C-alpha cells in the first residue's frame, strides 16, 4: 500500500517521532510510506513538504503563519498545503493524519483529502477536540464550544481569542468527513468519544511502539562509564523541559527533589536530557549533569540503562514516548498520574505514580524508588516484559496495517456498489 503520513514536522517533537517510527516500520515491511510536513528535509525522497523547497514556499509559510498568529486564524491559511495537497493525496491508498496544528496545514482541506483516500487520524493530543488548545489542562470549555480561552499562548499560540469561531469552523469541516480516529492511549479514546466535535467518528486505540532492538537493557556500569557518570550515585534521569515547561512539570520536580533532600536522601545525581538554558543552581539540591539534545536513539538507550529511575512529572500527556523507551530499557519510572501515563506506569510493575500537583507525593515515590533496591530490581525486570508485550514497533505496525487494509477494502466495496 501507499500510505501518506501527514504531520506538522517530520523529525522534531513527540508526534513526529511516533509518526517517523510508524513510517519506518511500514517501509521495512514492504509498504510505501511517505511523510509530508511543513519541515524541509534534505536528501530524503520519502519525506517532503507540501510544495518543493524554495523561496516562494518559505515566503508563503512565513506570511501565513504570521497572519494565523496575529488574527487568531490558526489552521486556516497555510498556502503550501492548499497548493500542494492534490499531488500528494492522489498518490496515496490511505492518508494517515497526525498533528495538524501549529501553522503548517490548512485543516479545511480535510474533505478534499478524504475524497482521494480513506483518512486515519492519529491524535497525539487534544487539538481535534478543542477550538484551539493541544492540552486545555483544567479548562472544560471544549465540551461546549470554547470561547473566553484562558490559554491563548497554547501551543499553538494565537493573539486573538477566536476559539469559539475556530470551534465552529472545525465543527463545519468535521461534519463533512468521516475519518477513523486512532489514539495511542485509552484515556484520549474516552475523551474523543465524549467530545462534541469527534464523538460520531469511529475511534480505535493503538499504542505507540518503540524499536525493542535499540531500546533494550544495557549493562549499567558500562553505560555509566561511557557517559562519564558516577558509578556509585543514584542516577535520576529526566527531560530538561520538565524544569522549564509548565505542562511538562516546571516547578514540580525541583520541589520534589528539595523534599527528597530534606528527608535525608543525599547521594543523587540529576541527569537532564534536552535543551535547558535556565540556571538551575539553587533550585535543585543535587549535582546536575546537562546532556543537551540527544538525536541518537542508541545514546538514549545508554542513558536510560545508566539511570536508576526515569522521572516525568508531567501535568498533561497522552502516551509519552520517553516512558515507553525507559521501560523497554528496563528502567523503572516515577511519573504523575495524568492522561495516558497510568496505562504505561503501572504501580508495582513498571514504576510509581505520584498524585498530580503534589511535590510531597512525588518525593515519596522517588524516595521509595531509590531506597528499595530489591523492589526496584524486580520492577526493572517487569518493565521489559511489559514493553515486549504491549509497546513494540512491530505490534504497532501490524495494528495499523490491519486498519488500513480494512478501510481500503471498505472504499473498494463502496465503489463497486456505486458502479452497479
- Rounded to the nearest angstrom, the distance between the terminal CA atoms is 26 Å
Low-confidence stretches: none
The count of strands amounts to: 13
Query: Per DSSP, what share of the residues sits in E-state strands of 2 or more residues?
Result: 5-15%
Strand sequence of the main sheet, in spatial order?
3-2-1-4-5-6-7
Task: Specify the overall morphology.
Answer: globular
Q: What is the correct CATH architecture of the largest domain?
A: 3-Layer(aba) Sandwich
What top-tier CATH class of the largest domain fits best?
A: Alpha Beta
CATH domain topology of the largest domain: Rossmann fold
Any idea how many domains? Answer: 2
The biggest sheet amounts to:
7 strands, parallel
Write the H/E string, N to C: EHEEHHEHEHEHEHEHEEHEHEHEHHH
Describe the secondary-structure layout:
Layout: E1 2-6, H1 14-28, E2 32-37, E3 47-49, H2 55-71, H3 79-89, E4 94-97, H4 110-116, E5 119-122, H5 163-174, E6 180-183, H6 186-194, E7 202-205, H7 220-227, E8 234-239, H8 252-262, E9 268-273, E10 288-292, H9 297-306, E11 309-312, H10 321-328, E12 333-336, H11 341-344, E13 351-354, H12 359-371, H13 373-390, H14 393-419
Parallel strand pairs: 1-2, 1-4, 2-3, 4-5, 5-6, 6-7, 8-9, 8-11, 9-10, 11-12, 12-13
Helix pairs in contact: 1-14, 7-9, 8-12, 10-13
Amino acid at each position: 500500500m501507499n500510505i501518506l503520513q501527514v504531520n506538522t514536522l517530520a523529525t522534531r517533537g513527540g508526534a513526529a517521532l511516533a509518526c517517523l517510527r510508524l513510517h519506518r516500520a511500514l517501509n521495512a515491511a514492504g509498504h510505501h510510506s511517505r511523510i509530508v510536513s511543513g519541515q524541509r528535509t534534505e536528501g530524503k525522497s520519502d519525506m517532503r513538504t507540501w510544495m518543493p523547497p524554495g523561496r516562494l514556499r518559505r515566503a508563503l509559510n512565513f506570511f501565513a503563519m504570521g497572519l494565523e498568529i496575529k488574527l487568531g486564524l490558526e489552521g486556516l491559511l497555510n498556502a503550501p498545503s492548499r497548493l500542494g495537497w492534490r499531488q500528494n493525496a492522489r498518490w496515496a491508498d490511505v492518508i494517515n493524519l497526525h498533528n495538524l496544528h501549529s501553522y503548517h496545514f490548512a485543516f479545511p482541506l480535510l474533505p478534499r483529502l478524504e475524497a482521494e483516500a480513506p483518512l486515519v487520524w492519529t491524535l497525539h493530543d487534544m487539538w481535534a477536540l478543542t477550538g484551539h488548545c493541544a492540552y486545555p489542562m483544567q479548562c472544560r470549555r471544549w465540551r461546549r464550544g470554547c470561547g473566553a480561552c484562558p490559554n491563548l499562548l497554547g501551543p499553538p499560540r494565537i493573539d486573538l481569542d477566536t476559539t469559539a469561531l475556530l470551534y465552529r469552523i472545525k465543527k463545519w469541516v468535521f461534519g463533512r468527513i468521516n475519518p477513523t480516529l486512532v489514539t495511542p492511549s485509552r484515556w484520549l479514546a474516552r475523551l474523543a468519544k465524549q467530545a462534541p466535535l469527534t464523538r460520531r467518528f469511529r475511534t480505535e486505540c493503538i499504542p505507540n511502539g518503540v524499536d525493542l532492538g535499540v531500546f533494550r537493557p544495557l549493562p549499567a556500569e558500562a553505560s555509566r562509564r561511557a557517559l562519564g557518570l558516577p558509578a556509585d550515585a543514584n542516577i535520576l534521569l529526566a527531560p530538561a523541559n520538565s524544569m522549564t515547561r509548565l505542562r511538562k512539570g516546571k516547578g514540580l520536580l525541583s520541589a520534589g527533589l528539595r523534599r527528597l533532600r530534606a528527608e535525608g536522601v543525599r547521594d543523587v545525581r540529576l541527569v537532564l536530557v534536552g535543551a535547558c538554558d535556565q540556571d538551575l543552581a539553587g533550585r535543585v539540591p543535587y549535582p546536575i549533569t546537562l546532556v543537551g539534545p540527544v538525536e541518537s536513539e542508541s545514546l538514549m538507550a545508554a542513558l536510560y540503562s545508566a539511570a536508576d529511575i526515569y522521572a516525568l512529572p508531567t501535568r498533561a500527556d497522552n502516551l509519552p514516548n520517553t516512558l515507553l523507551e525507559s521501560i523497554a530499557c528496563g528502567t523503572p519510572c516515577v511519573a504523575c498520574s495524568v492522561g495516558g501515563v497510568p496505562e504505561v506506569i503501572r504501580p508495582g510493575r513498571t514504576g510509581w505514580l505520584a498524585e498530580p500537583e503534589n511535590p510531597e507525593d512525588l518525593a515519596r515515590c522517588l524516595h521509595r524508588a531509590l531506597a528499595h533496591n530489591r523492589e526496584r530490581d524486580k520492577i526493572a525486570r517487569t518493565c521489559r516484559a511489559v514493553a515486549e508485550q504491549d509497546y513494540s514497533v512491530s505490534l504497532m505496525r501490524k495494528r495499523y496495517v490491519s486498519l488500513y487494509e480494512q478501510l481500503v477494502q471498505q472504499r473498494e466495496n463502496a465503489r463497486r456498489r456505486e458502479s452497479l
